[in-house]
Automatic annotation (TrEMBL):
SUPFAM superfamilies for the chain: POZ domain (SSF54695)
Name of the featured protein: BTB domain-containing protein
Span of domain BTB: 1-61
Highest taxon of source: Eukaryota
UniProt source species: Zooxanthella nutricula
Gene3D superfamilies cross-referenced by the UniProt entry: Potassium Channel Kv1.1, Chain A (3.30.710.10)
Transmembrane spans: none
Pfam families named among the record's database cross-references: BTB (PF00651)
Classification via PANTHER family: SPECKLE-TYPE POZ PROTEIN
């Protein structure tokens, strides 16, 4: 949308390995001191940057989108936090979406643990199991 969100380079670079590499100066982002992110809303970006600054994720943040951002920009602590929140909030209504989001990011070692926890919760809960095995 062309809007800017001003941040400190050091916060981005220390909070994200990807931003760290981008802002070193070898890439156009480093020379321009500007990173363009076009695949999220400004509100989602604010939640992400707030996490990088304070290590906190607002309750109203879209955890699935934050997981995507954390994975894309290599923020392992946020990946783990999102995985934990997603598994803790699993219901029969969202269990398939949670599993899909965790599997999509399955290459992340941090999420392996949460995928296993999700599986155990599903097997222990008849309602979750029924929701997963329900053929539409």
């Amino acid at each position: 949308s062309g809007e800017e969100l001003r941040c400190h380079r050091v916060v981005l670079a220390t909070g994200s390995a990807v931003f760290g590499r981008m802002l070193q100066g070898y890439f156009k982002e480093g020379a321009a001191a500007r990173v363009i992110i076009s695949d999220i809303t400004k509100e989602q970006l604010r939640h992400f940057v707030r996490y990088l600054y304070f290590g906190e994720l607002d309750d109203e943040a879209d955890v699935s989108k934050m997981l995507q951002m954390a994975d894309k920009y290599d923020v392992p602590e946020l990946v783990a936090l999102c995985g934990k929140r997603m598994v803790a909030s699993m219901t029969p209504g969202n269990v398939k979406d949670v599993l899909r989001a965790l599997r999509k990011r399955g290459a992340s070692v941090a999420l392996d643990e949460f995928t296993e926890i999700a599986k155990r919760r599903i097997h222990a809960s008849p309602a979750l199991f029924d929701a997963v095995t329900d053929v539409e």
